[in-house]
């Protein structure tokens, strides 16, 4: 129940920043760099107070996976509806984690329900480009990869969570500083980037806390609550029309594993 509560709060933060990115037409390495830059002072303070010796290299790996995820996600949003891309990317990841982790029957059943729910949510009349779906599957692969890696860092390496997040953020800013050419132009979006810069680390910080009290497969499937909240936001804010049956099946898969 504690893990489910943490993941529900995380889902709210995650769906909100994804909606802001989609609605505002924001994206690209420059925007990701800016989000990291806005929280850089906090990260530096955490590094000074923490013990990065056991976390820095694991945080760098996490940064690489998360940065690839963020760039791929934003690219997917340029080709498809928010609801479709979000559902494919968040709903497929738990199945990948379950397969990679060799989970038990209950976890596989929950992952299967989530996948079925995602398929039911797709509208027959939808004309979502195949490229958006493929990019959504790419996002799901990145999500599964960083979920497994972060579970290893928390469960086996016993990294300090705040230091781990701080290392990843500092590494991302440094890496993208060499990639982004127009730093001054990117900084013009700081007002729109500010809420995303807060919601993004808050969302995954809650996931890391959940990983400390539940298995990686349980957390991966519990994160499918993002699909529900994200789809509802897409319906209310963007006037997209999801299928309620699919949402119910997704929730059933999450509850099967989490309760």
Please give a handful of descriptors for the protein shown.
259 residues, mainly alpha, 13 helices, single chain
Number of strands: 0
Largest sheet: none
Whole-number mean pLDDT = 82
Poorly predicted ranges (pLDDT <50, ≥5 residues)?
none
Helix tally equals 13
| Category by helix and strand content | mainly alpha
Please tell me how large the radius of gyration is.
Answer: 17 Å
Secondary-structure element order, N to C? HHHHHHHHHHHHH
Considering DSSP H and I runs of 4 or more, what fraction of the residues is helical? over 70%
Which strand-content bin applies to the residues? under 5%
Shape: globular
How many discrete structural domains? Answer: 1
C-alpha termini separation: 6 Å
Walk me through the structure.
The chain has 259 residues and is mainly alpha-helical. The chain has one domain (2-258). The chain contains 13 helices and no strands. The chain starts with a helix and ends with a helix.
Write the layout of secondary structure elements.
Elements: H1 2-24, H2 29-38, H3 40-49, H4 56-77, H5 82-101, H6 105-121, H7 130-155, H8 161-177, H9 183-186, H10 190-211, H11 216-222, H12 225-237, H13 244-258
Brief summary:
This protein has 259 residues and is mainly α. The protein is built from 13 helices and no strands.
């Amino acid at each position: 129940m504690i893990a489910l509560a943490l993941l529900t709060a995380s889902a709210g933060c995650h769906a909100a920043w994804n909606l802001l990115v989609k609605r505002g037409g924001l994206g690209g390495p420059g925007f990701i760099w800016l989000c990291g830059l806005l929280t850089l002072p906090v990260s530096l303070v955490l590094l000074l107070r923490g013990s990065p010796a056991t976390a820095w290299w694991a945080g760098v790996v996490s940064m690489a996976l998360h940065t690839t995820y963020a760039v791929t996600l934003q690219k997917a949003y340029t080709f498809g509806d928010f609801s479709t891309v979000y559902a494919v990317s968040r709903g497929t990841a738990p199945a990948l984690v379950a397969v990679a982790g060799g989970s038990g029957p209950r976890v596989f059943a929950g992952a299967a329900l989530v996948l079925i729910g995602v398929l039911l949510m797709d509208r027959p009349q939808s004309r979502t480009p195949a490229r958006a779906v493929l990019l959504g599957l790419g996002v799901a692969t990145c999500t599964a990869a960083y979920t497994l890696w972060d579970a290893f860092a928390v469960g086996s390496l016993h990294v300090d969570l705040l230091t781990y997040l701080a290392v990843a953020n500092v590494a991302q800013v440094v890496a993208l500083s060499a990639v982004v050419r127009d730093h001054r132009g990117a900084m013009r979006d700081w007002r729109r980037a500010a809420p995303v810069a807060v919601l993004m680390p808050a969302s995954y910080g809650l996931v890391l806390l959940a990983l400390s009290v539940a298995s990686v497969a349980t957390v991966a499937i519990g994160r499918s609550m993002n699909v529900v909240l994200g789809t509802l936001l897409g319906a209310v804010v963007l006037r997209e029309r999801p299928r309620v049956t699919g949402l119910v099946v997704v929730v059933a898969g999450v509850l099967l594993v989490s309760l």
